[in-house]
Amino acid sequence: MSNGAKDDSEKKTEITRRQLFKGAVGAGIMASTGTMALNLMGGKAEAADRSIPKTWDETYDVVVIGSGFAGFAAAIEARNAGAEVVIIEKMPLHGGNSIINGGDFAAAGTKLQQENGVKDSPELMLQDMLKAGAYLNHIELAKAVAYQSKDALEWSETYLGAKFPRLNFHGGHSVKRAHQTENASGSGLLNKMLSKSKELGIKLKTRTKMVRFVVDSNERFIGIEVRNNFTFPNENSGKTAFIRARKAVVLSSGGFSNDVVLRQVHDPRLNEKFDSTNQPGATGEALLAACIAGAMDVQMDWIQLGPWTSPDEKGFGYVPLFCERLVGYGPMIYPKTGKRFFKETGNRKERADAIILLGEPVIILGDSYAVNKQVFPGALEKGMANGAIKKFDTLEELAKNYKIPVAPFKEEIAKWNSYVENKKDPDFGCMIFPDSKPTVTGPFYASRLWPRVHHTMGGLVINKNAQVIGFNMKPIKGLYAAGEVTGGVHGAVRLGSVAMADCVVFGRIAGKNAAKEV
Amino acid sequence: MSNGAKDDSEKKTEITRRQLFKGAVGAGIMASTGTMALNLMGGKAEAADRSIPKTWDETYDVVVIGSGFAGFAAAIEARNAGAEVVIIEKMPLHGGNSIINGGDFAAAGTKLQQENGVKDSPELMLQDMLKAGAYLNHIELAKAVAYQSKDALEWSETYLGAKFPRLNFHGGHSVKRAHQTENASGSGLLNKMLSKSKELGIKLKTRTKMVRFVVDSNERFIGIEVRNNFTFPNENSGKTAFIRARKAVVLSSGGFSNDVVLRQVHDPRLNEKFDSTNQPGATGEALLAACIAGAMDVQMDWIQLGPWTSPDEKGFGYVPLFCERLVGYGPMIYPKTGKRFFKETGNRKERADAIILLGEPVIILGDSYAVNKQVFPGALEKGMANGAIKKFDTLEELAKNYKIPVAPFKEEIAKWNSYVENKKDPDFGCMIFPDSKPTVTGPFYASRLWPRVHHTMGGLVINKNAQVIGFNMKPIKGLYAAGEVTGGVHGAVRLGSVAMADCVVFGRIAGKNAAKEV
Prior knowledge:
Chains A, B: It comes from Syntrophus gentianae. Two copies of one chain form a homodimer. Chain A is of the alpha+beta class.
């Protein structure tokens, strides 16, 4: 197992898609893609390996890959349908992105909405999803999420015991329909799922990485090859073992926001200069393993970027909470020219695309009036403490710090201020809010912005039974999938708070059907 | 071979993606997807078939699948590199879409451009391609096309003997760089390729359909299973045979604009209500067969629609030549309301998306002044002869014919006319050209418009050597691809006239490298 490949795999962060695709026939490209393959496929395993083990190390009815919302929902439903269930998780901790997200769960027509006087319906939620998705959504899937969202939320509350006391609004939704967990984190639901799964006798194996699917001669998925005691991201760590699935495998391994090579295949702009808001394990090797075994992928090139993140802090950070409250109150500046370059109130995708085109971080700034009025104090303090938000007494000082040419910058601010006074931006059509004021009152606050990869809309094709569809257009026997590893639910753009609904709705469907597979 | 499946395959036009994905677990969906699979994979063949034939019916060094520009370019270069070459083509006639296209070949920095005073460069062409492609292009591929376009054109002229006397402009290009064949058709090049291939002793087998790739235990592509004497679209016709490729297979089977099921997986809007400008054989089974055998697909959801086609004539037709000359001179009307609904001068994608959202054909109209000034007489006459363009003495008559409510329609025309007089459209921002006049002078001409699928940008991932990349991120041994079956060259949007350049550039690369494969 230790075959010298380790040295290669340790170089993986240096390998870019550019290198992958520029090679000549022969040694150059073979070497670099060889490394790439090791990176993606896990050390020893060969993509072409189609062998069936003579003996299995462990056997269950249903094997669930990944321990986020979708994986736990599947495991719990499969167990309640009588199956013996294991969840495997490659990371040392369960929960994936689910345990670090904001805990907002979109659901339509709920009790909390009624109590808050919000009129909503599954059909309205569906229409919002389709519009955001540029009508690329697989309609039956989007419909399932919208129409079963209320039931999924109620199941999370009454059966699992999670609490969702707060109703939030997210852009692109027609009404407030994001039901937020008590602790404003996905852990508010995920930990309830963990407790329930323990109570039900579901086994959770962390540090267990899926390497390939085992498929029998009838093209039925009958189990997986794993590495036990895996230490992420060392692809050669751990020990090979085989886990049999008597009934079915459920793939709920999440998205690939942190997989630089894979995301660059589908959106070549997203090189190593782009960080991600996701947990480090959000890579695509399980998705690719499914494709190697015959599963069809879809809409992989729709990768959502947050335009509001800063290169000066990690993960999601505090700058998004600074930036998103300032747009429409302060200008966004390209440091090289000192000028504005895009509509500050444009949507996520438009703004991210515009920043990427410039090729370097931009600046968002606001004066004391705007910042004190708009920005949540906690976010401001924390962003300043970690250095991602900076305070300047004068605009000259601000310009100097970010190497902005002072004269054109000051001209631009004067122009912006005239637009604010006229409440109209003839240059880019930015919305200027009624209570917005010219940027004149020091001190001034600013942050650098560089988009970060946030969500991957594409993934495996499934039908409304959560069966994975193969490139032969048939449902694959013994393979179900749910959550971010699937594609089609969201189409081009996922709306905020719909991921939780998607994971719980389709996780439950996948678990129920996996337990019934014959 | 005749196993009753024929009845199913004959039903294929009735099967929609909706049916595919709405099924319940069990008989319902299995039946419909079973039919789907037969449709896509060709009767008998099972996707899972990985057997290697004991004997081969025919053997060549290089086997080329598809007889368009890319296939012939590959075959000719492989032959000139010393390989024994066969081209297989499933249709009764060679040429695919290449032989029916308009014969426009984008090339940068050519003699004809110099003679016409056009300043151009490969870098400018590359930048145009990237901008149109929303920077999703695989840059090394786009670069290869832009930088080798001149050489590919010269090869077509000097080596093959094709003539490109005319220089045309296409939207999205910075300069005139479309070199049009003498007969204003792709056949002007394709037939020269055919002659040369005969001269070189390249075998062309029409009515020969590729069913699956044969892959050895080292994951090397060593040949293909075909059906000889295949009669499109009868998937069960013909007789199974095996063709060995000593060196490599080149896949140049074109796009999938006419494959309703496959295109609906990637863009669910594009159901059977959408016709295509392509030849009937533009289906995706060869692309899918490659994916089943391990090839990776990319950007399949970028499917180009022409917003200028009419449901009242077949193929490309004459209405595009009517519509595209009228935009900016006459309004586009939604018959249900009698009102305009979108910027007439918006780009192809914007207009097509807007029409699709309405869900039914719209009307483009012009008065005698606009039509006589703008529309090429031949196109007008031919469109009128086939009934797709109609003439009316009055606007009332026009409204009545298309069931447009008369009063709101006449109000809308009056409003449009006021915009034309002011040279400004405050409703949708349509460009109003300086010589545009109000729509008042009878007779009036009109056509119904409904978008038609024109080009599929996505396809197999290749590197700049035209090697196909697998889901394991490695180049596949023995498999090359070129032309519309590949993805990444064009990114989100293919510019007019770049397809020919792409096919010839990458066809040649694929052929040369296939002949060298060891």
